[in-house]
Amino acid sequence: MKGYRMHYGWVILVVGILVVAGSLGFGRFSYGMILPSMQSALGLTYDETGIIASANMFGYFLAAMVAGMLASRYGPRIVISVALFWTALTMAVTALAGGVTSLILFRFLTGIGSAGGNISIMGLSSSWFSPNRRGMANGFLVGGSGLAIAITGWLVPLVNRMYPEYGWRYSWLILGGLVLAVGVLSVFFIRNHPGEKGLTLMGGGTTQAGQNSAWQGNRNLSIKGILYLRGVRVLALAYFCFGMSYIIYTMFFVNYLMGEKGLAQSVAGNIWSMVGFLSIGSAVIWGSLSDVVGRRLALFIVFTLQTISYLLPVTTSASIFVWLSAVIFGLTAWSIPGIVASYCGDLVGPKAAPAALGLVTFFFGLGQILGPTSAGYIKQLSHSFIGAFYLAAILACLGGVISVLPQRIVRDNPSANL
After folding, report:
1. How many CB atoms within 10 Å of residue 8?
2. What is the rounded distance in angstroms from the CA atom of residue 77 to the CA atom of residue 197?
3. Cβ of 158: how many Cβ atoms within 10 Å?
4. Does position 350 have pLDDT exceeding 80, yes or no?
5. How far apart are CA 30 and CA 391, in angstroms?
6. What is the pTM (predicted TM-score) of this model?
7. CB 358 within 8 A of CB 69
C-alpha cells in the first residue's frame, strides 16, 4: 500500500452530496416541512400553497436546460458555486415574506438556483466516474437530498418549539446559511474533470469513456440533436412522470399526515426524518443495481415500488401502512434522478452529459410544476389529498411502463446485458 493515494473523485463525491443537499434538500424539500407553520401564520389556502410550490418548480423548469448548457460550455464548478450562493440568498429572503405574492417570487428565484447546482453536479459525475461506476456515484450524490430531509425533519420542529410565532422564518434563515456554507466548500474543492488533478476516470478509462457513437459522430450536436438520440425522448417522458408524481408526495405528505390523519407535527416530523435517513444510502443501491441490470429495468422496479408507496396511505386506515409507505418511498426516493443522470452519461458522454441532463430535466420540471398545483386544487375542491395521491400512483405506474418500452425504441445501458 506504499504510495497509495486516494482518488480525488471521493472528494468530488463528498462535496457533491452536500451540493445536492443544499440545492434540493434544503432549497426545495424543506418547504414541505416548514409549510404547516408558515401556512398557519400567513393564513394561506391549500391552492395557494400548491401555487407557491409550483413557482419553485417553475424556476427550476426554466433554468434546468440553461444550467446544463452553461455547465457543459464553461464547466460545472462556476455554475455550481454561483447557483448555491443565489439559492442561499433567496432562501434567506423567504424569511421576510409577508404573503402569497412574495412567497411565489422568492420560491421561484430559489428554484432557479436549485437547478444550477443540482443539474451541474449530477452532470459532473460523468466526467469523474467510468460508466461501470456512474450509477453508484450518482446514487451517492442524490442521497444528499435524504441527508437534508433528515436534518429538516428534526430541525424545523425544534425551531418551531423554541419560537412558536416566528419559527418558520428562522428556519428559512438557518437553512439558507447552511446552503451558503456549501457554496463556499464548492469553490475550494469542486474540479471540472480529473485532468485538472492529473488523474483519469475513477473506475478506469479516459475522460472520454462511455461516449455514445452517435455523439462521437457529431461533437457539435445541438439540443435538438440530443433530443433525437435513441432513448432520450422516452427517458424524458418517464422523467416527467416521476417529476409530477414524487413532488405531490414530498410536498404534501406531512400536511396529509397532520391534517387528515391527525398526527402531531413531531410524529410527522419523525416519519419524514425516517424517509430522509432511508433515502441517503438507498440511491447507491439502486444506482449500483442499474450498473449491473441496466437503467431501464432498474427504473421499472423503482416506479413500481413508488406506485405502491403512494397508494398505501390512502387505501388503508391502519397507521402501520403510513409508516410502510414512508419506508418504501425512503428506500427509492432519489434513485430515479441518479439513474437518469447515469443514463444521460451513457447516451451522450461526459462533456455533454450536463446538457442532456438539463434537457430531460426540462420535462421533469414541467411535471414538478403541474404536480403541486394539481394537488392543491384537488385538496381545495375535495377537501382531501386522497385524489392527489391516486394521481401520483397513476403517473408512477405510467413511468414504469414507459421505462420498459421495446428495445427498438429505447437504447439501454451499453454496459449491461438484459
Report:
1. 17
2. 14
3. 13
4. no
5. 23
6. 0.74
7. yes
Q: Which of 399, 377, 9 is nearest to 201 (CA)?
A: 9
Q: How many angstroms separate the CA atoms of 193 and 198, rounded?
A: 9
Q: Position of cell 430559489?
A: 110
Distance CA 112, CA 101 (A): 17
Range of 145-154, 214-223, 351-360, 383-392 with top mean pLDDT: 383-392
pLDDT digits (tens, 9 = 90+) for 32-70: 889 989 999 999 988 898 889 889 988 988 898 888 888
Contact 368, 62 (CB under 8 A): no
pLDDT tens by residue, 81-136: 999 999 999 999 999 999 999 999 999 999 999 999 998 998 888 788 887 777 88
Question: Residues in the chain, how many?
Answer: 418
**How far apart are alpha carbons 160 and 257 in whole angstroms?**
18
Question: CB–CB of 338/218 below 8 Å?
Answer: no
Task: List, in order of start, the domains of the chain with CATH numbers.
Answer: 9-191+222-402 (1.20.1250.20)
Task: Determine which of 5-19, 121-135, 344-358 has the lowest per-residue pLDDT on average.
Answer: 344-358
Residue type, 276: G
Angle, to 10 degrees, between the axis of helix 131-162 and the axis of helix 167-189?
150
3-state DSSP assignment of residue 307: helix
Distance of alpha carbon 151 from the chain centroid: 16
Say how far apart CA 28 and CA 241 lie, in whole Å.
Answer: 18
Q: In 3D, which of 127, 373, 345, 118 has the Cα closest to residue 231?
A: 345
The predicted pLDDT at position 153 comes to 83
Residue 7's Cβ-side half-sphere holds a number of Cα atoms within 13 Å equal to 14
- Counting Cα atoms < 13 Å in the Cβ hemisphere of 358 gives 32
> In angstroms, rounded to a whole number, what is the distance separating the alpha carbons of residues 302 and 82?
33
Q: With 0-12 CB in 10 A as exposed, 13-18 as middle and 19+ as buried, what is 387? A: middle
Helix (H) / strand (E) element for 289: namely helix 265-293
Paired residues of 129 in beta bridges: 202
Contact 327, 270 (CB under 8 A): no
Nine-digit cell at 19?
451540493
